[in-house]
Amino acid sequence: MKMVINKYPVRKQLVQILMELLSLEREAVYRRLRGEVPFTIQEVVTLVSAWNISLDEIMGVNVGAISFQMKAMNYLDPSEEEIEYLRQLVQSTNNLKYFPSTEFMYICNELPRALLVGYDELNKFHLFKWAYQHGDMKENISFSNLYISEEKLNITKKYYQAIKQVPNTNFIFDSKIFNYLIKDIRYFCSIYLITEEEKELIKKDMLELLDYLQEVANKGCYPETQNKVNLYISQLKIPTGYSYSFTPEVNTCYIHVFNKFEIYSYHSDMVANFMSWMQIKKRTSIQISEVDVKNRIEFFMTQRQLVESL
Questions:
Q1: Domain 2-59 classified CATH 3.10.450?
Q2: Nearest-CA neighbor of 4 among 38, 23, 25?
């Protein structure tokens, strides 16, 4: 049951979660974690369902195949179950500050959630675009009428604070990442679902994000926490977004699909391959944080000019 033990790096938190999920006393949980008492079939089923993992993974069975999973969510108006999942995501991200070797790496052709969620109008546009492409909208809804639950907004703010706790982060951006975003905004303006005033608010957020990213690139870290951040610009087109998280306990790789979803795997071989592939990607990318002042200045100058043209 290594997957159970590794799900939450902090043992006290794991014990508390298992007590609540399985309706067990504290000592009963500790006996299971020590291997003195096996988890029952019903308990295993409960954990598989709650944590959205496979029976093979939780039992440590190798069937010769690598399974990926996807947690589909309604990001506009999440259910209580989905809210709880998001809370656990924030808590587990916060806990990463206790593990200095933890690393996140993102390769992306769209601005990643870790950055978007700090900017209200920009994050709202990302949700708006997702709702039109993959949501369950029965009719055209304008940007101004898009409803996002208050609870979801509060969790979003907590996630933005939590992501800064990661000790080491790498971003590799497609060189046209802002071009793609601007093109999307122009499309929705052209069909009158975003007004000129709303466009200006999104534009303001984009400029503020560029200011923040330049500060991160200059310092090589998140200014709020001083945690290490490396920014790269890919010289080759990035066809899709993918990422991995590496911790001493649990490693995961993700392929970002349908704008707001991810398919993911905890399989050690696949995670190792992802880490290798993504590190190789640095060979065709230019690091603009700390070391390359000329390319850093040129990149941010070009992006600001693009945004100003919106």
A1: no
A2: 38
